[in-house]
């Protein structure tokens, strides 16, 4: 596992938490920020996965 995979998954989890907090508090802004953070985290993790697969093939 590389850093991009780990950081991406952590960021995705933080985004999920932020989205839940936004739902509980009724804050649409916090919900949207959480959703954005999830997408960014998922993208970073996917990049890390691709990097790892490339490294294994070489």
What does the model show?
By secondary structure, this protein is an all-alpha fold. The protein has one domain. It is built from two helices and no strands. The mean pLDDT is 97.
Describe the structure in brief:
This protein is mostly helical.
What is the percent of helical residues? over 70%
Summarize the main sheet.
none
The SSE string, one letter per element, is HH
> Any idea what the shape is?
rod-shaped
Low-confidence stretches: none
Beta strand count: 0
Query: How many domains, as an integer?
Result: 1
Tally of individual helices: 2
Any descriptors?
single chain; 58 residues; mainly alpha; rod-shaped; CsbD; CsbD family protein; YjbJ_sf
Topology:
Layout: H1 3-25, H2 28-57
């Amino acid at each position: 596992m590389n850093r991009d995979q780990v950081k991406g998954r952590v960021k995705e989890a933080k985004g999920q938490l932020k989205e839940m907090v936004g739902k509980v508090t009724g804050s649409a802004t916090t919900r949207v920020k959480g959703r954005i953070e999830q997408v960014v985290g998922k993208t970073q993790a996917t990049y890390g996965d691709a990097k790892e697969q490339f490294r294994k093939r070489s």
